[in-house]
From TrEMBL:
GO cellular component: a single term: cytosol
PANTHER family per UniProt: 6-PHOSPHOFRUCTO-2-KINASE/FRUCTOSE-2,6-BISPHOSPHATASE
GO molecular function: 6-phosphofructo-2-kinase activity; ATP binding
Family annotation (InterPro entries): 6Pfruct_kin, His_Pase_superF_clade-1, His_PPase_superfam
Single biological process term from Gene Ontology: fructose 2,6-bisphosphate metabolic process
Pfam family, one: His_Phos_1
Membrane-spanning parts: none
Protein name: 6-phosphofructo-2-kinase
Amino acid sequence: MGASSPPAMDCKGFQAMSTSLLNELDGGVCNGLSYSEIIRDYPDLWAARERDKLNFRYPNGESYKDVIGRLRPIIIELERQRRSILVISHLAVQRCLYAYFTGAPMEDSRNNEGWET
């Protein structure tokens, strides 16, 4: 999956690939903190995030729009495939891929029932 991807591995008869492009959204200065800790320690950041989750970028981190940009090479590769693919990734990446492949607005994908927002 591109120059930054390691070679594919054989995993019990299935081809497996790994890439950092599927990593979770980088929370920057808030990485590793729970939402309650962010609300307590960074109330202004939390308020900005709540106003616009799609475009909000954590300081020294990423926004959902950044993740979407990072996923472009993955999406191109997935669209080329003619067989079933299993993607194992973190929630922000799943939301972005879901929105893309279902045609749902990204804003809606972050609010699907059962998905923490």
